[in-house]
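User: Here's a structure from my thesis project, written as structure tokens. My advisor, Dr. K., wants to see whether a designed sequence matches the one we expressed. Can you design one independently, without my sequence as a hint?
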């Protein structure tokens, strides 16, 4: 914490000295050169900790974080569920749109499970609505070819929509 305090103090003092020097400079080329020089000095002061940092100490500090720190697994769990929900909603809407293209009024519910790389992939689809046999076959073929949902995992419920 002392290192950060010292760095902030040095950057602040440098900025104040540069501002005072610019205020005292005569207008013209001298002032432009002075502003450029002052800006470069300030940038060097800001970047100085990166140049002098002991990266081994930083690694040791990070690796010794307490057990309560967020792990990669926890982060993946927190991102997996929202991603799964979005994919299920989008694929369900996609199936409904395809049904409408085929002339059917239906609703769909897709269920996803972790696939390769823990990415949610569709494993089952339930389609509800009054579809003809031809519409079911076309929609079934579409889900199998485009969404990789096997025919055995496609469920059709012949019910009227509300």
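Assistant: Designed independently from the structure alone:
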């Amino acid at each position: 914490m002392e290192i950060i305090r010292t760095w902030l103090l040095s950057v602040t003092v440098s900025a104040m000295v540069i501002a005072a020097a610019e205020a005292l400079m005569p207008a013209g080329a001298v002032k432009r050169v002075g502003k450029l020089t002052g800006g470069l000095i300030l940038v060097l002061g800001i970047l100085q900790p990166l140049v002098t940092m002991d990266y081994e100490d930083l690694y040791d500090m990070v690796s010794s974080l307490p057990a309560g720190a967020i792990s990669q697994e926890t982060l993946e769990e927190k991102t997996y569920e929202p991603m799964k929900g979005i994919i299920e909603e989008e694929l369900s809407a996609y199936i409904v749109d395809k049904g409408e293209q085929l002339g059917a009024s239906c609703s769909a519910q897709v269920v996803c499970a972790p696939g390769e790389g823990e990415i949610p992939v569709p494993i089952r689809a339930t389609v509800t609505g009054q579809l003809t046999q031809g519409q079911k076959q076309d929609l079934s073929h579409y889900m199998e070819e485009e969404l990789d949902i096997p025919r055995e995992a496609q469920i059709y419920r012949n019910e009227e929509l509300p």
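When you compare it with your expressed construct, this may help: Strands lie at 106-114, 120-129, 154-157.
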